[in-house]
Amino acid sequence: MSGVPLKIQLVGFYTIVRKEVSRVARIWVQTIVPPAITMSLYFVIFGNLIGRRIGDMGGFDYMQFMAPGLIMMSVITSSYGNVVSSFFGAKFQGYLQEMLVSPLSGWVIILGHVMGGVVRGLAVGAIVTVVTLFFTDVDVKHPLIAFAVLILTAMVFSMAGMINAIFAKKFDDIAIIPAFILAPLTYLGGVFYTTSLLPDFWAGLSKFNPILYMVNGFRYGIIGVSDISIGSAFAVILIFLVLFALTCYYLIHRGIGLRD
Amino acid sequence: MCGMKALAINSLTKTYPNGIQALRGIDLEVEEGDFFALLGPNGAGKTTTIGIITSLVNKTHGDIRVFGHSLDNDIYAAKACIGVVPQEINMNLYESCYDIVMNQAGYYGIPRSQAAAHTEAMLRQLQLWDRRDDQARGLSGGMKRRLMIARALVHSPKLLILDEPTAGVDIEIRRSMWGFLKEINEQGTTIILTTHYLEEAETLCRNIAIIDDGKIVENDRMSAILRKLHQEVFVLNLENTVDAAPVLAGFKVRLVSESELEVQVGKGQSINDLFSLLNERNIIVSSLRNKTNRLEELFIRLTQRKDVSTDGSDH
Ligand SMILES: Nc1ncnc2c1ncn2[C@@H]1O[C@H](COP(=O)(O)OP(=O)(O)OP(=O)(O)O)[C@@H](O)[C@H]1O
Ligand SMILES: [Mg+2]
Predict the structure, then answer these.
(1) CB-CB neighbors (< 8 A) of B73 in chain A
(2) ipTM here
(3) In this structure, what is the dihedral angle of CA atoms B2, B7, B13, B14, given to the nearest 10 degrees?
(4) Which residue, A130, A138, B54, B258, has most beta carbons within 10 Å?
């Protein structure tokens, strides 16, 4: 067993990241603008119009409560969407083979694409944050925690997007999972409300939703309140990170959905 | 040990998930520095074999070594030795030619500064440098194929595998590609190619294997294989005209037109004898050619009997 020299892996990693980032930049109208518009609408409708009637949530003005959730929601959707469409496109058009024949290890292929998803997630997250500032003040309580949760979550969903792309056989397959699994989990993941408003049963069920931990972890980092202890938020995020990373590696190493 | 094998394949089999048995036990060796042709009719298993060598298709059983590196436990070293030009276009058609080749260099670990020089050299060699900033989808079919060759060579592989590199390439460019491939072969790159133009294989390759229905049916030096031909048909163009096919002892002659003859020359017969007989009859030959490519005759003979026996099978 002789591995690939580290230098080759690093150059390969840089090449993939550069390619992924320039893809995001090239089609910025599709990758960056839509979430900015959607999130502005959320702020106008839920924050400004309806939010006034809602009053406080978790001890905060509704807009301030919702802002971290919306940022997180756009990061999750963008990082997932980036990797699922980029990786599936590469597989569908065949140019994923360029990487599969090369001496790059599966980890480099995974991390390169994940980094692309993280960059797009952060870019979108930054824009949504700027949009937020038009509507409300944000006073960040624990910047390091917020940033760590944001990055790790973007990684988790980039990998989830990759897994989706690996199993997908047609374009429908990369639309189904986001619509039927990701969106419901996100909307039910505490973006818009605290679980203390829910009846016990639903509050208990929500604890099985990993997105709840990510949204609350991030909300803790920004405004300092959370339905979940920050320790368990990190624990859940890290468990999914490791789980998805190993799944990606297994799939790529075995060539499942890629080399059959 | 002298004469390292560029490629050694041992009892390779492949059954696709849909049950198609594409390879039924392939054994193949290609010497370092060789120019090797892998021939066979459609569906014989050539692309499958290449797919397995290049890690794009999972094998079912068997053992493959590339310059001594086993695909099972030294795959990264094996991969670094190979450059491949696939049969199907597999590029991001929205990327520029330049980026496609540059990125491939990156995947093989060549830093950008160095890669830029390689990329330029390859694009120039394949007459694509003027089109470097065009998206690949704007290229003609033959240009896309050349772009894939440039991409395959950018990391200077020791083994270049080409799956029908000249399909859809015009004659002039095909000849220049032949010249180019010969040149890099002379500089030491081992080349394996598949093609349906047997003239191409005959012109370029020193050794060939013919694969049919997932099995190797012939594997020898090109010269030895051509010697196995039992007869050849020559077409003679005549200076003067004749009304009927002349009777030439021992040779089967057919009149095509008043100034064209077809003559079968068997294995033991010499063309000198044929010409003496023609001389005796004052028939002057202005030019002479093989009726079909010699390899083609053999190829058809080797792969055709199969069709008869599989006739009536389910596909
Ligand atoms: N992905 C696949 N799934 C299932 N069967 C396949 C697949 N790829 C090839 N086959 C089958 O395997 C057999 C060998 O195909 P292969 O592509 O290796 O032939 P080939 O020699 O390259 O033919 P050609 O000259 O047409 O390119 C064929 O019967 C083909 O239908
Ligand atoms: Mg083929």
Answers:
(1) 1
(2) 0.92
(3) 170
(4) B54
